[in-house]
């Protein structure tokens, strides 16, 4: 686990920033592949990825600052943009990234729900790789296991500052692994008939469930909202309910005109049309 990979002069190259950038690049690349396989809009993916990626970083940071750590940052305003300290809430990143994606899609007359379905697997893959950045940086850590099992973080990390040499639950590792499972499930789901928008709402539901239960093991913040649950659990619960309603509605709306992803046939058809 190395927070600093090397230095260029006196400037540190941090593993957190490098892996986070890699997660965005690979997510965009997978999104391009899926869109080209689908036969629609792949020419827009790189530009959309740049805008949504930048919005995702801003949204993730501000979500963490205002929803999770305002007690600290309210007294340390100048540190709000010190993202290398840790503190990037993926829920805020997905939220603002999605908003920017919708704006971009509407501006270019792209079917928002169809594009969201195409990109859902790419988004969760980016999240999975992003959790590797959290591990290398020593943030998004778990609570003490109370046994000899767990991760002991280096002294330079926030996790060590909070819990010292106590072994902690590998919450960020498990979340990254479960994100890969969601990635596979979304690819499988998209190979069957489904209503427009159902793949994206399924992604939101699955991730919300994973995040809700893993929050019981998180140790980087523990303040409860209304004494009931953490902020992330509350937003996960709300997101799950809204996504479930959307999933049901999308299936009902398209019950007589189901969509199906057939990559090979669509690719051949696109060549005939000269796309």
Automatic annotation (TrEMBL):
Q: Which residues take part in binding a 1,2-diacyl-sn-glycero-3-phospho-(1'-sn-glycerol)?
A: 131
Keyword set for this entry? Answer: Cell membrane, Lipoprotein, Membrane, Transferase, Transmembrane, Transmembrane helix
Q: In which pathway does it act?
A: Protein modification; lipoprotein biosynthesis (diacylglyceryl transfer)
What is the recorded membrane topology of this protein?
Multi-pass membrane protein
Q: Which GO terms describe its molecular function?
A: phosphatidylglycerol-prolipoprotein diacylglyceryl transferase activity
Would the keyword Transferase turn up in this protein's UniProt record?
A: yes
For this protein, the record's Pfam families field holds: LGT
Q: Where's it mainly located?
A: membrane
Q: What is this protein called?
A: Phosphatidylglycerol--prolipoprotein diacylglyceryl transferase
Q: Which organism is it from?
A: Pectinatus cerevisiiphilus
């Amino acid at each position: 686990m190395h927070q600093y990979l090397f230095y260029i002069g006196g400037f540190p190259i941090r593993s957190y920033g490098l892996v986070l950038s890699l997660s965005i690049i690979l997510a965009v690349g997978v999104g391009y592949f899926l869109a080209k396989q689908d036969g629609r809009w792949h020419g827009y993916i790189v530009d959309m990825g740049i805008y949504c990626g930048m919005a995702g970083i801003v949204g993730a940071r501000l979500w963490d600052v205002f929803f999770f750590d305002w007690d600290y940052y309210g007294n340390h305003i100048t540190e709000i943009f010190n993202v290398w300290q840790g503190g990037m809430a993926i829920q805020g990143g997905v939220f603002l990234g999605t908003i920017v994606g919708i704006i971009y899609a509407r501006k270019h007359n792209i079917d928002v729900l169809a594009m969201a379905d195409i990109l859902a697997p790419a988004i969760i893959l980016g999240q999975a790789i992003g959790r590797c950045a959290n591990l290398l940086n020593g943030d998004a850590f778990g609570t003490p296991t109370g046994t000899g099992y767990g991760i002991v973080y280096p002294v330079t990390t926030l996790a060590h500052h909070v819990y010292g040499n106590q072994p902690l639950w590998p919450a960020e590792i498990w979340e990254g692994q479960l994100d890969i499972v969601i990635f596979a499930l979304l690819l499988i789901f998209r190979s069957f008939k489904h209503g427009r928008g159902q793949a994206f709402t399924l992604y939101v539901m699955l991730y919300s469930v994973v995040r809700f239960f893993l929050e019981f093991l998180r140790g980087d913040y523990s303040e409860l909202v209304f004494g009931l649950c953490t902020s992330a659990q509350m937003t996960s619960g709300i997101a799950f309910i809204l996504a479930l309603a959307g999933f049901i509605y999308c299936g009902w709306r398209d019950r007589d005109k189901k969509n199906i992803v057939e990559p090979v046939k669509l690719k051949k058809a696109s060549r005939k049309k000269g796309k």
